[in-house]
Write a structure and sequence with these properties.
Layout: H1 25-34, H2 40-51, H3 65-75, E1 80-88, E2 93-100, E3 105-113, E4 116-120, E5 124-126, H4 135-139, E6 141-144, H5 147-162, E7 175-178, H6 188-199, E8 213-217, H7 221-228, E9 235-239, H8 245-251, H9 260-274, E10 278-284, H10 292-306, E11 310-316, H11 330-342, E12 346-349
Parallel strand pairs: 4-7, 7-8, 8-9, 9-10, 10-11, 11-12
Antiparallel strand pairs: 1-2, 2-3, 3-4, 5-6
Family: Belongs to the radical SAM superfamily. RlmN family.
Cofactor: [4Fe-4S] cluster
Active site: 107, 361
Length: 368
């Protein structure tokens, strides 16, 4: 079995130089003062980045040219360069491959729906959780992303929506899901800081409501409790994938450290603390975790631990290169969902987007 991380936050290996989006508003003012500029320059920079969504010095005409380059060089280093964007679903799903300053690659996926637009973002380059049915996990972990690298994925997508660069004309980025590459709670400090940048009102942040942000995890129980104590209103999504420890030890190797009961107890603490219903993610795999008795056991265990504060998202397994597993047949999927619902737990099938461009759940591999 692949070794799992022993800490929630790896060292700063490979991370870019500090960026405006790494800093709180007070830290930004302190940083510009250290550069010999007036503190209000920090608010001007923040307005350009978080409100106007620009990183182009030519757009920052309210800042003197002599000051502008110094501030840009020190507080707005280049973070992500678009390598390639692929569209599908009539242009309403767009996967972007990004290259960071050190050559690291990562991906994000923007999905437009009637009345909303959701961005699936990465918190790490690769993933160290080693789930065998996930392309990202099979590729291993390259490094954590910085707070600013996470936030910049959101800023870029917000600009795409504002500028009408997807079919449907101009719009607004409304929802963020930390379901791209990586285990968000294994990069805990930077993910929490990124959530605050994403949700703080402009120009301190991007102004997306906390209730419109979802943070997913494979089940790092202590970090779930720690996140609850942040007293934020983000939704928690737990990738469970089976209700029995014997199989989960294989499907989600971190289960060898934090078994299902401990994960669900932490999830209940999160639900009680936040007042928000927890999402349970369940990738349905043919002849692996789709048996009727597992549907019954899933409903029983979730009802015991979470009561009504839970919803199950069944995800038809998305194909990945070289995988020996496949999605369950539709009749098996329907029966599984029916039994969970009959067991007293709300359960639906998640809409799948982006399979043909390897942009769906478990398919992100950042291949060039």
């Amino acid at each position: 079995m692949t070794a799992l991380p022993l800490v929630f936050d790896a060292p700063r290996r490979g991370l870019p130089a500090r960026h405006l989006a790494d800093l709180t508003p007070d830290e930004r003012a302190e940083a510009v003062t250290e550069l010999g500029e007036k503190p209000f320059r920090a608010k001007q920079l923040s307005n350009h980045y978080f409100s106007r969504l620009t990183v182009d010095p030519e757009d920052m005409t309210d800042i003197p040219v002599a000051s502008r380059q110094k501030l840009i060089d020190d507080l707005m280093p280049s973070l992500l360069t678009e390598v390639r964007a692929l569209d599908c679903d009539d242009g309403e799903t767009r996967k972007t491959l990004w290259r960071a300053h050190d050559g690291t690659t990562l991906e994000s996926v923007l999905m437009r729906y009637p009345g909303r637009a959701t961005l699936c973002i990465s918190s790490q380059a690769g993933c160290g959780m080693a789930c065998p049915f996930c392309a990202t996990g099979q590729g291993g972990l390259d490094r954590n992303l910085s707070t600013a690298e996470i936030v910049d994925q959101v800023r870029s997508a917000a600009a795409v929506m504002r500028d009408g660069a997807m079919p449907g004309g101009e719009g607004r980025l409304s929802n963020i899901v930390f379901m791209g590459m990586g285990e968000p709670l294994a990069n805990y400090k930077r993910v929490v800081a990124a959530v605050r940048r994403i949700t703080e009102p402009a120009p301190s942040g991007l102004g997306i409501g906390q209730r419109s942000v979802t943070v997913s995890t494979v089940g790092l129980a202590p970090a779930i409790r720690k996140l609850a104590d942040e007293r934020m209103q983000v939704r928690l999504a737990v990738s469970l994938h089976t209700p029995d420890d014997e199989l989960r030890d294989t499907l989600v190797p971190v289960n060898n450290r934090w078994a299902i009961d401990e994960v669900l107890e932490a999830a209940r603490y999160y639900a009680d603390t936040s007042g928000r219903r927890v999402s349970i993610e369940y990738a349905l795999i043919r002849d692996m975790n789709d048996q009727p008795w597992r549907a019954d056991l899933l409903a029983k265990r979730l009802r015991q631990h979470l009561g009504h504060l839970v919803h199950v998202n069944v995800i038809p397994l998305n194909p990945t290169p070289g995988s020996k597993w496949d999605a369950s047949p539709k009749d098996v999927e329907r029966e599984f969902v029916r039994r969970v619902n009959d067991g007293g737990v709300a359960c639906t099938v998640r809409d799948t987007r982006g399979q043909e461009i390897a942009a769906a759940c478990g398919q992100l591999a950042a291949e060039s």
